């Protein structure tokens, strides 16, 4: 097996190329070493991806990676493995893995056929209304969309994963659920991150007796690292799905338990809402970047649209020359990000309800117009930026894992219950947490959601509508073949996190583990600041401030579990070190 991480040889400028050659020649002369020394320079990577030849799985939890990898080893395909991982994460990582939430799956087959997206985003219950998160005076009641039963959208995960399996898998739903049921019933040894998460979310979870009983010991303490944690109610719910198919969730006992939970606490989801829930097969957003084809999530996610938009703006700049995380590079990225997030606030919403000018927003011509407004030397204050004017509407229209199998099929999946542990509300008797995805709607046009994202009319609450998302499961193809499979959690930061991994690979020639680990930056128009992770040098920050940027160092952003496929077919997995349980493994 090739032990060397795959590297992109980036296009170097003539001076850079001749400079490097001179340096290598000089070292060779001085040390008497043959040109093979060049290899040694390439070995200087600090982060190394997992490498394998037949299949690769990258998830945010080792147990989910293991069960999905076993599916691949047993002859299952990437879709089988992804669905198995999705259900396993609902057990091992209840803070984000879920059956009570929703998400998006991108599937790109090894045969080169057009990639497909499965939209299993939650929907507003039929009794939802535009002003449901406002008081009598029309002021937004902040926590109503976050920590009450009204916060929950109708969950989509079970039907989305089942649909993916039905369309492209070889396993039955029962087979894909078996490892999750075993993990829930027999329990698993909890890692430190599990205990820490439950301590952090204690206030939110303890308010609800079913959450308290599910996630803490009878004496109220959290399960400690090394102890075995079992979820019998969840095991029974998963078993009902295994026995009855999606009806085991959307009808019968599970649906009754969800509806009863809602009735007890003035929630809106009814048995009818559950029975009516349908996932949707959509076309992903498609763009190109420096000769690569980029496929990412279409509305009701904003992710793909704005990744393509930002890449279009940046494509005309010599980003490789500017260098990774230099002040020049960060400045241009931040300026492009601002423009995209301003457009997001105005135009993006569920295309089943509103017209979104997708072609306009993702066109190269519109990017050219936007680029014209960027000053390479000076930040433009967010207050001077409004949504642009893309070509008019066409007539129609958080946790991430990546899997690639031996046939070259790729799956990129991001799903979520929104906050860590979602609403904090466990369905009594069913053992799973409900999402608080309704906060992703704009509770009132112009009022930011929990991620500071401003939404407009296009994202107002309407019955049956899907709330706008930033989730960006992405697959990049090169010469028609799957090349990069990536995506991340992180709320509003998902778009920029995913963008940077794409650029780290394509522009900066990083191997996938280095691309995933590298410090990230983020700008979302409002607040008007570049948010950075630790690891960007203080003099770079000073240069950015000199150009008029406000720069704020904050906690780590995203957890981007990625796979890159080398030209010889070798699979490289990059697990994000920002999550201690992240795991990329192949065979
Ligand atoms: O759909 C969205 O954009 C958000 N609900 C995602 C939330 C998220 O990524 C939280 N994870 N860190």
What does this entry look like structurally?
The active site is at residue 398. Keywords: Acyltransferase, Glutathione biosynthesis, Hydrolase, Transferase, Zymogen. Pfam families: G_glu_transpept. This protein has 587 residues and is α+β, with helices and mostly antiparallel strands. The chain has one domain (57-187, 230-580). The protein contains 21 helices and 19 strands. The protein has helices at residues 14-31, 37-42, 62-73, 78-92, 157-168, 173-186, 192-200, 202-206, 209-215, 232-244, 247-250, 252-264, 271-276, 303-314, 319-322, 327-347, 358-361, 364-372, 493-506, 512-517, 538-546, and strands spanning 50-52, 56-59, 102-108, 116-120, 188-189, 228-229, 280-282, 285-289, 292-296, 399-404, 410-416, 474-478, 481-486, 521-522, 530-532, 551-553, 562-565, 571-574, 583-586. It has a seven-stranded antiparallel sheet. Strands 7-4-3-11-10-2-19 form a seven-stranded antiparallel sheet, covered by helices on one side. It has a three-stranded mixed sheet with strand order 14-15-16. Strand 17 and strand 18 form a beta hairpin. Helix 3 packs antiparallel against helix 4 (78-92), helix 4 runs antiparallel to helix 5 (157-168) and helix 4 runs parallel beside helix 6. Residues 1-42 have low confidence and may be disordered. 6-diazenyl-5-OXO-L-norleucine (DON) binds at residues 398, 416, 418, 437, 440, 469-471, 489-491, 494. The site of 6-diazenyl-5-OXO-L-norleucine has 12 residues, from loops.
